[in-house]
Design brief:
743 residues; Jelly Rolls; Immunoglobulin-like; 11-stranded antiparallel beta sheet; 9-stranded mixed beta sheet; signal; Glyco_hydro_b; GH
């Protein structure tokens, strides 16, 4: 090779080596980057807060963003570095592809660094090989947009010195060490560390480490964990662990007492582990999703003959291609993945006619509150004062007629049959969500008429499918209609759900067949507890008691007029109350909760709430439940599903009795137990900010599969096979969901 050829080759290689790329420095975007943000007021040269001469100042509406668009993709870069001043609870970061409009998992800004605050800049690095909070690598994609997005309350924030990095150096380090089970220390690390440096003392006495087991979660390899088996079991007192630069101390608390009685049992429905809109077959299998729902506001206007739908007031009353593609195809792959399918049948009079039309064009209704930032002609159907735009739009502008005949044609032609059909979604509030096609308030009688007509048709076409209705949106509408309490008065002062159950029983008798198999409701903890301060977290964790506890007055409703609509006092007592209504008005009907949520999907407390609720659903006999909507498989809520059902490990189908000695124990921890195939499983949720020590009598010693997430170890799919040497003091770290199953 000639010298000239060698130099050319060397230069060609050098040209392929990326260097760090500036996106924003001081007062301008660099290197061809553009702002594609929406609903955000931006000052690119703000001087009120800056690292250098100026910074980006942004004020974003709810769910709006500073969106930075690259002229190419960010492939080949190792991470993102930036300075930020913000309330971390108000923002999230994600990456987006212009080519196919896909987006990455969301990264809560609060998960990046605890030092982030609104009054001064914090320099942070987001490692693309280990995105917080899960530690999962950035998904493969043609990412060319970086979005700093406000959450539901909007956000004011500053950004500066935004830069893509070509390399990130990971320094070997011990990250955390905490006690778990009866005689283990769980240690998380980064890089290659030396475990011979670990020293453990319990009540000032050195404890030897007799075994070391390391586990690497398959989808978050950066979050490896090592379990140190101790020579003696844990007891109350002071535990210290020193490892490298890490030194931690724990006060192991006084023991809490409980017992498990395997002779007292109750069946657990496998269909309580459902979600709405699972994104893939692998998602279903990783999380153990047993039932999948095609639901939400948009399905009310789903046109199966073109696979179009309308976003309703969720997004400017615009038509679009169906979120789930073709319903028949969706049912097919859902069932092939091992999940049952729940299909929603539209029950209003109109469905979307195409994927492009919309109800409130600016050319006809110029005086509207907001317009779509991506389609300036599509309005939100509200005047600036918040009242509905008048006159009501011509439904033919965006829709075509729909009735039971059309629905019959659709369902008859399905190659893949769903196990469940739902009669529309939250139809009682159609006068709001779908004001463009149903502007009048929905009454008792109209809702019943629609439910009966579509249920009869569904039972004729799909005789093996279970019918669920009315998919009522919230507590208020369990008891009345959008017409108001004059509607109750007109129906002998009977609240809506008991009236509906009795009327469906009567209609079933007339039809000669059961028309309602499941009473379906939606339940969201009230109010929205998206705030992330300590008080909100503690309240969020206590509120699961509203599902079952007759002695718990839901604190979020204290002083609210909602209390006035609780028929039997201040306690919500949701599951037993609904079962009483069923037994009194249409015995044999089962209970479905097809929408519920943790109120904080990205926070560890959201995962703990979810794990607690899944245990409660099993214990108190909910028959079907689906989360709204499809939580991140690597996030706290997704991990709660994995804890119970993920990757072929099952909690159990027969619940066994758990007795706890501590009054109001449910405020700080929950314990659930089940058996299947002669194997005992126990789930413990520690809702407290300090470790929990439990004496659980009748839990055998021996070999167990351990799963857990949360605590100092963080949010990842941690598991190992351990030996439980004693059930007299089982330690669960703070803010941790813990699962053991006999092997």
């Amino acid at each position: 090779m000639s010298l000239r050829t060698a130099l050319v080759a060397l230069l060609a290689v050098a040209a392929l080596v990326k260097s760090d790329e500036d996106i924003y420095i001081d007062d301008a975007l660099s290197n061809g980057w553009q702002n594609w943000g929406w609903s955000t007021v931006i000052n690119w040269a703000a001087t009120d807060l800056a690292v250098g001469t100026s910074s980006i100042s942004a004020v974003s509406d709810a769910w709006a963003a500073v969106s930075l668009k690259s002229p190419t993709t960010i492939a080949g870069f190792a991470g993102l570095k930036f300075d930020i001043a913000a309330d971390p609870a108000q923002l999230q970061l994600y990456f987006q592809s212009t080519a196919d409009n896909t987006q990455s998992s969301n990264v809560p800004i609060s998960a990046i660094s605890a030092a982030i605050n609104p009054t001064s800049f914090t320099t942070v690095i987001v490692d693309f090989s280990a995105l917080p909070p899960s530690g999962a690598p950035l998904e493969a994609g043609t990412w060319d947009r970086i979005n700093f997005q406000a959450l539901g309350n909007g956000a004011s924030y500053h950004l500066d010195n935004i830069q893509l990095l070509t390399s990130i150096v990971v320094t070997p380090k011990f990250l955390s060490a905490e006690p778990i089970a009866s005689n283990y220390i769980a240690v998380t690390t980064q890089g290659a560390v030396n475990f011979t440096s670990v020293a453990v003392k319990l009540n000032s006495v050195a404890v030897a480490v007799t075994g070391v087991t390391t586990y690497v979660p398959p989808d978050t390899p950066s979050r490896s964990i090592t379990y140190l088996k101790l020579a003696s079991r844990l007891v109350p007192g002071t535990l210290t662990v020193a490892a490298g630069d890490l030194s931690v101390s724990y006060t192991l608390p006084t023991v809490q007492y409980g017992s498990i009685t395997t002779a007292v049992t109750t069946p657990i429905s496998p269909l309580i582990y459902g979600v709405n809109w699972p994104p893939s077959a692998s998602y279903i299998q990783q999380l153990g999703v047993t039932i999948s729902r095609w639901g939400g506001n948009a399905v009310t206007a789903y046109n199966p003959f073109g696979d179009f739908t309308n976003a309703a007031n969720d997004w400017y009353f615009e038509n679009r291609a169906s979120d789930g593609g073709k319903a028949d195809t969706w049912i097919g792959w859902i069932k092939a993945a091992g999940s049952q399918a729940m299909m929603t049948i539209p029950a209003l009079d109109w469905v979307a006619k195409d994927s492009t039309s919309y109800s409130y064009p600016k050319s006809i209704y110029p005086n509207q509150q907001k317009f779509d930032p991506y389609n300036a002609d599509a309005g939100n159907g509200l005047f600036p004062n918040g009242s509905y735009v008048q006159p009501t739009p011509d439904p033919n502008r965006a829709y075509v007629p729909w009735n039971t005949t059309a629905a019959r044609t659709w369902l008859t032609g399905l190659a893949n049959k769903p196990e469940f059909v739902f009669i529309d979604n939250e139809i009682e509030i159609a006068g709001n969500t779908h004001q463009d096609i149903h502007p009048a308030p929905m009454s008792y009688d109209e809702e019943l008429t629609r439910m009966v007509a579509y249920a009869k048709m569904a039972k004729e076409v799909l005789p093996n499918a279970k019918v669920a209705a009315p998919s009522t949106c919230s507590w208020w509408f369990y008891w009345t209609s959008a017409v108001g309490y004059t509607d109750n008065t007109a129906h002998n002062n009977v609240d809506f759900l008991p009236w509906f159950l009795a009327q469906m029983k009567s209609a079933s008798t007339t039809a000669g067949k059961r028309l309602l198999d499941y009473l379906d409701i939606h339940y969201y903890f009230q109010p929205d507890l998206s705030a992330n301060d300590d008080a909100a977290k503690a309240l969020r964790l206590r509120m699961t008691r509203s599902l079952w506890d007759p002695g718990y007055v839901d604190e979020s409703w204290a002083g609210s007029n909602v209390q006035n609509h609780q028929p039997n006092g201040a306690a919500v007592w949701l599951i037993p109350r609904m079962k009483q209504l069923i037994d009194s008005n249409y015995p044999g009907t089962k209970l479905s909760i097809s929408e519920w949520a943790s109120t904080a999907d990205g926070d560890i407390t959201g995962g703990l709430v979810t794990a607690d609720v899944l245990g409660i659903f099993g214990r108190y006999g909910v028959d079907v439940a689906t989360y709204w909507s499809n939580p991140d498989a690597k996030g706290p809520v997704g991990l709660a599903y994995w804890l119970y059902r993920g990757s072929g490990t099952y909690f159990g189908n027969t619940g066994v009795q758990v007795n706890l000695a501590t009054y109001n124990a449910a405020n700080t921890y929950g314990v659930y137990a089940a058996t299947e195939g002669g194997k005992l499983s126990v789930v413990i949720i520690n809702k407290d900010t300090k470790p929990l020590g439990l004496d659980l009598s009748n839990v055998p010693t021996g070999s167990y599969l351990l799963r857990h997430f949360g605590g100092a170890s963080g949010v990842a799919k941690y598991q190992a096979t351990i030996t439980l040497t004693s059930s007299q003091y089982i330690v669960v770290p703070a803010y941790t969901a813990f699962f053991i199953k006999q092997t």
